[in-house]
């Protein structure tokens, strides 16, 4: 077997940068750090307090949601306040008056 082909394997720690938990493991690298671990990740804790919103995406989403809800409410108000428009007079009624207008003819059936 060749000598000096394998890296040195030793016991070290993984340190979580969020909650500070230390996880002892064996590794070829020393002093490992992670941003989040199973001790503090919302998937494992079931809590939603851990949302890291560095780019403001949550804020943008909440703004869009609010604008959308306001638009829907305004549309619903308009729908409620809408009144029936008066029926438009037909051309025959305008010419002969409403009482004397001849009944409008239906469109001729197609010739077959
Ligand atoms: Zn952690």
CATH architecture of the domain at 10-79: Irregular
* Radius of gyration (Å): 37 Å
What gross morphology would you assign?
Answer: rod-shaped
Unique ligands: zinc ion
What's the CATH C level of the domain at 10-79?
Few Secondary Structures
Quote the beta fraction: 5-15%
Q: Mean pLDDT, as a whole number?
A: 83
- The spatial strand order of the largest sheet comes to 2-1-3
Tell me the number of strands.
Answer: 3
Largest sheet: 3 strands, mixed
Q: What share of the residues lie within helices?
A: 25-40%
Order of helices and strands: EEEHHH
Cα(first) to Cα(last) distance is 98 Å
Which fold name fills CATH's third level, the topology of the domain at 10-79? Rhinovirus 14, subunit 4
Q: What structural category arises from helix and sheet content?
A: alpha+beta
Uncertain segments: none
What does the model show?
The protein has 112 residues and is of the alpha+beta class. It has a domain at 10-79: Irregular (Rhinovirus 14, subunit 4). It is 31% helix and 14% strand. The chain contains 3 helices and 3 strands. A 3-stranded mixed beta sheet has the order 2-1-3, with no helix packed on it. The protein is rod-shaped. The protein starts with 9 loop residues before the first strand and ends in a 16-residue tail after the last helix. The mean pLDDT is 83. The protein binds zinc ion (ZN).
